[in-house]
């Protein structure tokens, strides 16, 4: 059964001859075969998914492909951030090559951001670039990771340090599937939704403050929030595909967030990406206030909303303790936003007024972290 | 000591804001520090090389960098085609990240095509793309693999099946270092030099027939042959960077050649890449004659020249035996030049008249191979 087409939204990512559509709405997994078949020249697909998503949606997805005469193979990987590794990259590449996916065929990521990042990377390097379709199943993946072409895996030196830019040819965001997402993961994805408001959409942030319960519940408000988020990301990506400038704004909260993820060894029992981003966004607002850029009230407003939603907003909410400020600083310095030893940070002048600062003194960051770390 | 600048040639690869120079001539390793320092904003370099090249040139190269205030680390890998593997890709990425190579710093490949392909791939994925400098030390790498941005590793499913396009920022081809190359490797590289004549430069092929001894001996004729080859490759790459059309001509002899390399398990004791290309080019001419596209005399002329130089020209010269035609065909079909199941081949109407044929019947190829395979 397919939902009425009226509920469906389309966001276009404008990248010249590599432009693509993001379809957002209910019933897109059952409709996937038709949407893919109408766009793809080839008739072969390799589907990569994880052990949580497979029992819920893989059969439906494969059946939808089969109904349109598309031959598909699938590979199920362990769920979790640790799957973004060379080890699993090798197995995805191997499946894709074994399935003889050729230039007009495609590789599909059916899952959250972990599966999307890993599979996109494999698609980007198999035969030096194969077609790639994102079927994001987590809120985070639907509003963020599936759009924009950043792919990659983690290294012992830091998160996402190995990868390529490889744009998908299509994104199918089935909003129904978010109903099986754990509340914790839904909240984590919501942190990225709120992020778009905090970057440069104060009205959207205010709308979220009023309507977040409806977004969590499903239906029109959810579709609206996801479409607004995708549009925001699509605009930034179209303007700056390779992150030479404004795309860096999307990293609001992420410099601190990634350091916290590294410090907790990517252990999702302690911290998932969106939670790190939530704490990171609060820290970014507080640090901006400390630098006399923003009013402390903005930080308090952000903190209040994220706390109301149920997200962590301070480092002392991370179970298991954290390393000292200097070690966190070291993780920050190894992050991607470093040029010639200077620190690039996303700071803010208030809700919806973020900007790229590329001369943040390391000593200020360390002093700030010392203040904020649990004693 | 540096050779007079008059002997040095520069070929520019025209790719808009990713254009770069190939410097060709004697004394470029001792001069590397200066050439790099004048072009690079950063002051950190990771040098990747192999166990044959390291004892010969690594100290000189590191000293040249140091003299210009460039901080460098090095990694020495085993020599040979098997080094183009995920295992070694992981160690190169790890060295690059451990050295904290940032956006303005660079990764250097000091070696033959194996080191160049592997290191270029690592540079292409470390931090989603790092600066990359090729210092090719084999003839093959100087005239072919170091130019054009194709990078990659091998898979059990076939050669170069995993990789990215990642253009270097500079190529330094020191023609002196070819004096330590084994005669066999020099000949193998020469196959690629001859290839440019066979593709579309009949005059260059005729010049090589007369002057090949001088090219092997060194001096002006060698520099001339390398510069002509680099210019030929630069022209093709500038016209078709991603191999959507004419760049495929560079694969003359390679479809057969790669199948032979796969069939001999990339065992360089039996066959090196250029030898496979030499046999492959002769086969491509013979197959074209069989298809009534070219005169058999062209095939004989090509065979005569390559044999005179000392290259293998027929499959029965490969020690250790070959699998049956069907198995070779299978390796061909898994090669990159396959679209929707149809075979793309580079065929020829005669010396210097190659073209892309994308509808070659598989049955003809199998029948031809059966004829040519040693009984
Ligand atoms: N490429 C980018 O631009 C980008 C942007 C942001 C984040 N990321 C990356 O995304 C990753 C985080 O993504 P994520 O939060 O989706 O993580 P995830 O892929 O691990 O998914 C979270 C959990 O939810 C499960 N899950 C997914 N969909 C489900 C569903 N419909 N029902 C039930 N369970 C489901 C997964 O199995 C997993 O256990 C991180 O690795 C982060 O670095 C990438
Ligand atoms: N990227 C491309 O466009 C492209 C094009 C053609 C070939 N290739 C690849 O290039 C590889 C073959 O390159 P190759 O023939 O240079 O192989 P190679 O790198 O293995 O070098 C051949 C041998 O010569 C040694 N050597 C290199 N320079 C030397 C020197 N100056 N003195 C003494 N010994 C030296 C090496 O250690 C090695 O043992 C293959 O993997 C092939 O697929 C890539
Ligand atoms: Zn994020
Ligand atoms: Zn070659």
TrEMBL record, chains A, B:
<feature type="binding site">
    <location>
        <position position="192"/>
    </location>
    <ligand>
        <name>Zn(2+)</name>
    </ligand>
</feature>
<dbReference type="GO" id="GO:0005737">
    <property type="term" value="C:cytoplasm"/>
</dbReference>
<dbReference type="GO" id="GO:0000166">
    <property type="term" value="F:nucleotide binding"/>
</dbReference>
<protein>
    <recommendedName>
        <fullName>3-dehydroquinate synthase</fullName>
        <ecNumber>4.2.3.4</ecNumber>
    </recommendedName>
</protein>
<keyword id="KW-0479">Metal-binding</keyword>
<keyword id="KW-0963">Cytoplasm</keyword>
<feature type="binding site">
    <location>
        <begin position="137"/>
        <end position="138"/>
    </location>
    <ligand>
        <name>NAD(+)</name>
    </ligand>
</feature>
<dbReference type="Pfam" id="PF01761">
    <property type="entry name" value="DHQ_synthase"/>
</dbReference>
<feature type="binding site">
    <location>
        <begin position="113"/>
        <end position="117"/>
    </location>
    <ligand>
        <name>NAD(+)</name>
    </ligand>
</feature>
<dbReference type="InterPro" id="IPR030963">
    <property type="entry name" value="DHQ_synth_fam"/>
</dbReference>
<dbReference type="GO" id="GO:0046872">
    <property type="term" value="F:metal ion binding"/>
</dbReference>
<keyword id="KW-0057">Aromatic amino acid biosynthesis</keyword>
<dbReference type="GO" id="GO:0009073">
    <property type="term" value="P:aromatic amino acid family biosynthetic process"/>
</dbReference>
<feature type="domain" description="3-dehydroquinate synthase C-terminal">
    <location>
        <begin position="189"/>
        <end position="338"/>
    </location>
</feature>
<feature type="binding site">
    <location>
        <position position="254"/>
    </location>
    <ligand>
        <name>Zn(2+)</name>
    </ligand>
</feature>
<keyword id="KW-0547">Nucleotide-binding</keyword>
<keyword id="KW-0170">Cobalt</keyword>
<dbReference type="Pfam" id="PF24621">
    <property type="entry name" value="DHQS_C"/>
</dbReference>
<keyword id="KW-0862">Zinc</keyword>
<comment type="function">
    <text>Catalyzes the conversion of 3-deoxy-D-arabino-heptulosonate 7-phosphate (DAHP) to dehydroquinate (DHQ).</text>
</comment>
<dbReference type="InterPro" id="IPR030960">
    <property type="entry name" value="DHQS/DOIS_N"/>
</dbReference>
<dbReference type="InterPro" id="IPR016037">
    <property type="entry name" value="DHQ_synth_AroB"/>
</dbReference>
<feature type="domain" description="3-dehydroquinate synthase N-terminal">
    <location>
        <begin position="75"/>
        <end position="187"/>
    </location>
</feature>
<keyword id="KW-0456">Lyase</keyword>
<dbReference type="InterPro" id="IPR050071">
    <property type="entry name" value="Dehydroquinate_synthase"/>
</dbReference>
<comment type="similarity">
    <text>Belongs to the sugar phosphate cyclases superfamily. Dehydroquinate synthase family.</text>
</comment>
<dbReference type="InterPro" id="IPR056179">
    <property type="entry name" value="DHQS_C"/>
</dbReference>
<dbReference type="GO" id="GO:0008652">
    <property type="term" value="P:amino acid biosynthetic process"/>
</dbReference>
<comment type="pathway">
    <text>Metabolic intermediate biosynthesis; chorismate biosynthesis; chorismate from D-erythrose 4-phosphate and phosphoenolpyruvate: step 2/7.</text>
</comment>
<feature type="binding site">
    <location>
        <position position="159"/>
    </location>
    <ligand>
        <name>NAD(+)</name>
    </ligand>
</feature>
<dbReference type="GO" id="GO:0009423">
    <property type="term" value="P:chorismate biosynthetic process"/>
</dbReference>
<feature type="binding site">
    <location>
        <position position="150"/>
    </location>
    <ligand>
        <name>NAD(+)</name>
    </ligand>
</feature>
<keyword id="KW-0520">NAD</keyword>
<dbReference type="GO" id="GO:0003856">
    <property type="term" value="F:3-dehydroquinate synthase activity"/>
</dbReference>
<keyword id="KW-0028">Amino-acid biosynthesis</keyword>
<feature type="binding site">
    <location>
        <position position="273"/>
    </location>
    <ligand>
        <name>Zn(2+)</name>
    </ligand>
</feature>
